[in-house]
Amino acid sequence: MPLYHTLGAIPPKRHTQFRKPDGTLYAEELVSTEGFSSLYSLVYHAYPPTIVKTLGEPYSVEPKIAREKHLKHTSLIGFNIQPEDDYLQSRKPVLVNSDLHISLAAPRKSMIDYFYKNSQADEVVFIHQGSGVLKTGFGNIKFVYGDYLVIPRGTIYQMEFDTPDNRLFIVESFSPIRPPKRYRNQYGQLMEHSPYCERDIKRPADLETHDEKGDFKILIKKQGLIYPYVYGTHPFDFIGWDGFHYPWALSIHDFEPITGRLHQPPPVHQTFEGNNFVICSFVPRKFDYHPLSIPAPYNHSNVDSDEVLYYVDGDFMSRKSVVKGQITLHPGGIPHGPHPGSVEKSIGKESTDELAVMIDPFRPLMLTEDAIKIEDENYYKSWQM
Ligand SMILES: [Fe+2]
Hints:
Elements: E1 5-8, E2 27-32, E3 40-45, E4 52-55, E5 59-60, E6 65-67, E7 74-77, H1 87-90, E8 92-96, E9 100-105, E10 115-118, E11 122-129, E12 132-136, E13 139-143, E14 147-151, E15 156-161, E16 167-173, E17 213-222, E18 225-233, E19 238-243, E20 248-251, E21 270-274, E22 277-282, E23 285-286, E24 300-301, E25 307-313, E26 326-330, E27 335-336, H2 342-346, E28 351-352, E29 355-361, E30 366-368, H3 369-373
The protein binds fe (ii) ion.
């Protein structure tokens, strides 16, 4: 996050002696991204973060592709993904390309006996259902319905859930997730026209230093494999840290919609960006107020982009029937638009309570075996009059 933050104790000067009460040194670690060219933080550990005890056999979690090429409007019934106890095992990639993987998950249990680190991708975990705490060495972030948790690659974390009824929509991004550049000034500050500002960003709090030695299992994901590591020190042994690289959160409910006299185009809903894709939030808002306005969207051709909508809550004015957790994929190359009747129905309406997350990837998405299992096979015919 392009916003400085610090928690715990740090020395006045970087790269200088910083000692424990017993006179020994804390272990400094630079956590940097894009080489040494982008956001970074300096972390002070009770012990060096390098004490590997054992290394298990890696195993594959690579998505199994069922439909590599296609040109069909597709819908997935996301809540048909079955709940599973374990957080990692519950994550089912459904739509993937070389820029991002989109997964659905319904984990029942908190992570207790292991930690997880995604070393290949930033993660955006959208909390559709459930609440709890994202625990990291940088501090904790409490989450509730509607939060986007943004977890930069390399962050070791645990998810602690309050109840077993959790539904997550997860984006793994192989490039850094960031607020759109056009929302920020030359110093990185979010500008007046941005739909959210720094006050809306939830940063880590309640740093807990676990000064512990033992056996600590960390499952590390890299290049589609999970590497089971056992480290000799607790990964959350941060005494303190400072910098710009850390997990953060934004609630979809804090995204302030931009409206106009006429229908506003999708970029006004943009929330985050990665390389070759954007993430947008459709939130409750007043409709267009030109006397002859048509609130429903126009038909549109995504000439060079697929379009994924994940329906969260409320009535969706352009669709005939959608359910919570449903995904639609409208591939680039053919037009799509409002369902029959929804244009007329939208005229005169003053507001919408729809809530949805949209992802526009600029390279085609492939469908996985898990996606095919929850597909509504007749969706492509749903525009028939
Ligand atoms: Fe669309």
